[in-house]
Design brief:
Chain lengths: ~150, ~150, ~150, ~150, ~150, ~150, ~150, ~150, ~150, ~150, ~150, ~150
């Protein structure tokens, strides 16, 4: 596992400036810088995309195979509505980890269901920007674990 | 944050010996030893309970306030059925992180709902024994973050 | 009706110390003392159990027949999850009254359904520690009323 | 708390004469007399309305503020169908207690849901005419308890 | 069976003038006259009420016992929303037949459920003004049939 | 309207002998004889089928067009499960009336939904063998009423 | 369009005095005066009813045809429970606009469904007393627009 | 309030040319011109976007803060499927009004639920192109009203 | 109990030849032979029907009363769809036992609900051809047990 | 298969003394003695546990592997609420048979769903104490049958 | 693939004569003749069954194995109600294609669910009699494609 | 019908390279070439779009009217989530056919519902790349068939 594709979903370009009570005060630039630094210490490089377009995210995941070794994704609002991103992750075949800044299970009921989770290896939610770092660490633990038949 | 109460729910005493395809091959003794070592490196100590009894878990959480600073819990089967453990976590008021060995969102539908998640700060699921270490790391990131009003 | 079994369900050992905004500031010791005094004035004695264990509660109810004349129960979290306690109440055949400190119908939706209510004579909820005293008074009014065929 | 508005909902004018197996043998006149006597002993006076008209009940509650200090209501059939009475209770801002003669949770499923309960302080159900007296006692315990933030 | 209380629910005062495609062209006056004539031929008299007020209907049914021998009711819109009328019918204990001008099962889904049907002996729907005559005939056949335990 | 096809669904061959508390004591032979006599008085003839086979009923309805002028059907158990009979009635285009011996709305919940009702002109339920006669009368009232656009 | 019937549903007589955080501080008298003034400027007159009685509202709508040219209605609590008012609006055949002071879609789930909306031309909700004026303006735009076949 | 962002969702570029029975005969160009004229009369300027891309709409709302003072949005099909647009509106913090050309509550059931409504101040639906003008007027009334705590 | 009617539902004529992983390798001839032998040893005789026709099964059960003493039935696919067979079993009044070759609760969700179970004394499922023998043994234990009031 | 673990769930210690109309008149001591005798005749020995504690049952099943060869369980109330017992059975990997004294499909709806059934080989319900003997016989037939892939 | 069994479900014997707006004007004889001609051109022969009897269809499919190579079925009304036909198709193991004359997804909601689809290779719906020819072509493309593991 | 717009939805650019067990081994280039060749033989030309962007698909359909004569669409993941594409198809008014490579009814439950199907003439699913050719053939059969009023 050498290169990891990191995807930030819709509205995450606003991080830091808005609703800091839910999403924290760090902006995306800082989160990316911190994550790259942490990745470098772990011996992996990152390729990062923020997009508000479902189609862009689908396309980038579609091109990841052969170029990246794993996927770290915060699908944001698309968590609950995008079968297309789910299909892209399943189709690319790379190990994926889903992360969320807020604890989605403590918010509105429609945020409790993730269409993305069943095609990922695991999920980290609720730790603000730290969710990304924890998700990256989680991906790296998968280097030597195979996916189980049940999940 | 100096001392963390770690709780392993029902059937986790069997870890390592059974269903390694879902839960991995490490037994609970090794998981605990690894977690204690990691905790020591982070400057915290652990108090660990494995119990198959909902009532035991409720009681231990009830006594945690003042004795421990945070809660790391894998509620296992009680994730989906125990309002009593949920109430205990909410009543004790300590920051809590929920962890799962398997990706519960990729298993039977009844495992997709957690009664525990809404009263925790966050959740880590799907990374086998590494879920515990990631959950501990997550708890430590909360040292300087306050709980948000929404979740 | 001479002796009444009073049961306090899970987490009620914490009363007074935690979440006084929901459950009031009186602790269980004081509640029991007040209730015993009121019972004495009414000419009945009490046998009191607080347990976090569903099995303990089931067992005590199972032994109540012949020893006690009625049941006053605050099932707390088990209100919503315990078929076993429901079956125990139905099996023992004693008149039972269910009480709740908080108004369970003004809280989360999963607290609106009681598995216990259909096997009790009636329910008192929402009056803090006074719910117990009102529940006891209610039990005593049943002395001369037979259970109706419908409820 | 000096004056309490007591409301009897639809069909309660029939009490005593019909379905005594569900509702008891006391008629409304006797229930009101007993309740007034009990109120007098407690130092409060009662203003009593029986109406089969949802609109009448809404109007009387709307005029209660400033004239009465609390509300004791058996909404009968309107328990399950009247948003208007719920809104009236919420709008008047007086503490309210809901009572039922029968144990509504042991009858048909559509009687298990109360639209009224979430805007009351508490509920007493299942004790026949005694439910009124217990509900009045419950209201009086509220004299020195403030409503909690949760319910 | 000598005297039958006939009840027309809300909006039926408009019959004949509006929506003849659903409800036919006969007005209520003519329907009542025809029905009275038919009743006379069958040896029974009718007492007829049209009301848009749920409370009025509840009250009239409440007074029917002892004064009338049976109930013929077109609850119209209250079919789907009135627990109070259901309770009134059940409380009065008289045999009742429910009629509808239109076939309620071929209209909007919310009209497919009748709260009134379970407390009636039977139902006639879909035959325009003839539903009333058929309902009256149905009531008369009940003269010598007792209500079954199941329905 | 000269000839009416009468259909008795499954288990109705048992009428009279079994469960008289629900279905009455008249057997099918007598019901048919009475109905034929009544039809003759009304100037129509009957063609009668009792079948336990969904396919037989479908076929007979399929052949009714041109041969009969209307349909009187007690679909019995097939009321709740047969889309095929529904389609047959809709395809044949004849006016149809659905009848039931018992009040299906006062029995088990699965009997409250009729797949047949939306394609009939109306329904008569709950009057024992009299339901057939009332249904026949209802059909005859349709002679001069056209089907409405809504139902 | 010359005369418009304005209907205020249950509890709206309390406007201004209670819950100003939800419904604003203007009382009904002022709202009516402002609305009449605005109507006069638009060349229409108003006939105004406030009632807590479902039956009164049904009756007034039933008489509107021929007397008024359109209907402006804030059904308040009856929005969610009254099939009778829905039927009255549909029967009268006048163009109707539904208004709400609060944004009903941002309140309790049971307030998200309007039984009235499907029989109106449109809906305005969430703008406090201004909702009435906007609703009146909306009605006037309908003067030259016919109702579409779909709604 | 000086500048308002107006957003037209998917397929609205087709207005006027298609389905005039549902959406009216005015094309988008004319609607925009009329709306701009009306805005000028009210002393506000408009910034207008029509897009079929969920991502474009999300981005434009994300940039509105500081540039515009309010949001007028017809989310069209995205009303029912876009959590991303909902999150964008909530994140930008500007007062928003949702408008619909048709009465969405009189169309298919899946159009009765708006994911956008709970984060807007109010909604106007069913008045064709006039919905935009009414929505703009509604926004302007908000200039001096604060958002309530409930909705 | 001397003679037992054994019914094999649809597709069971294929036993042994198809899907042996679900239904085992014994064919129906052998199963019947083994079952008859076992019955003889228990002192009872069997009358056996395999039919793919719901109507045939209904008819045979309808004729069982007086001819047979009990019913052993594997309704196969009709378990989940036949109200007619349910009604036949209930009407015949004989004690019945339902058997299944496979564990229907470990298969597709629509197979978890049996329309037949509530009218039988009990159920045996999951033991392949042995389910028949166990079901027969179960029937014989009923010889001296009366049906309980609850089930 | 030499040794079988027999588990009796909550409230079964009361057998014989209470509700004989549902559960029969034999007490648990007699049932165990009869079952042991029958087991001995079949060449197997039994290890028997009755517990009201979910945790005890989980633990005993956890220790069964290597010690016992199969599991015969009447989970009683835990049938419907215990994911922990389900997980324990699945984890231990022994063939299991679920038994019930009453026909759970003829009782309250919440008793129709078994969380345990999908992880057992089969189920026997409704035959009183004979259910245990039939369940034991069923287990013994499994000696030479492997579990199928589907169930 | 040499011989294909073609099955026409209930009411299809009426094709051409009734409801041509839904099902087209061709009768079954012509459809069969056209289909046979097309089949001959493709080098396959057809065996054709029209039946209104679920049992007949089940039986014919049960005998298809070894006699036919594939199945082309229009289950008509049984699409939505027959588990027996589903089981027959699954048991016979032949590749099957489901066809519908009308677009079942544009009709009543109960027609949107097919019990048959999950056991077929694919489905063609909405093209009138052409659906059969397209379905046959589809079957022939399967000659060299194996069934996928997922569906 | 001379020119047909062919639309391939999200992730279909990956065809051939990934998950051949579900989607076959042909890549999109080959599928398009084969389809164009088949179209040419049928005398029609194709305009082909593959896009992962919902907005692009909406726009292209919006421009199709006047330029193309029909629509052949595999909406892939957007089948289940896009009201915008549904509205675009309905708005453009061209005959449309929906195709799927896999049998969507044999996959995850959320794939069983198509938002697109109700606005298409018909659907072909489950035949891999052949679904496109069959869908094209289906479109061509529509040349002389008008859309029915029901579907």
């Amino acid at each position: 596992m050498k290169k990891i594709l990191v995807i930030h979903g819709p509205n995450l370009q606003l991080l830091g400036a808005r609703q800091p009570d839910i999403y924290g005060t760090a902006d995306l630039k800082k989160i990316n810088a911190d994550l790259k630094k942490h990745a470098a210490e772990c011996g992996v490089t990152l390729e990062i995309l923020q997009s508000n377009h479902e189609g862009d995210i689908v396309e980038r995941i579609g091109k990841a195979k052969g170029r990246c070794d794993a996927l770290l994704i915060n699908p944001a609002a698309y968590t609950h509505t995008s079968v297309a991103i789910r299909d892209a992750i399943e189709a690319c075949g790379l190990p994926a980890v889903e992360v969320h800044l807020s604890n989605i299970y403590a918010r509105e009921p429609f945020r409790h269901q993730s269409l993305i989770a069943p095609v990922c290896r695991g999920q980290v939610s609720g730790f603000g920007p730290a969710s990304y770092r924890l998700g990256l660490d989680a991906l790296l633990t998968l280097r030597y674990n195979k996916r189980t038949s049940k999940g």
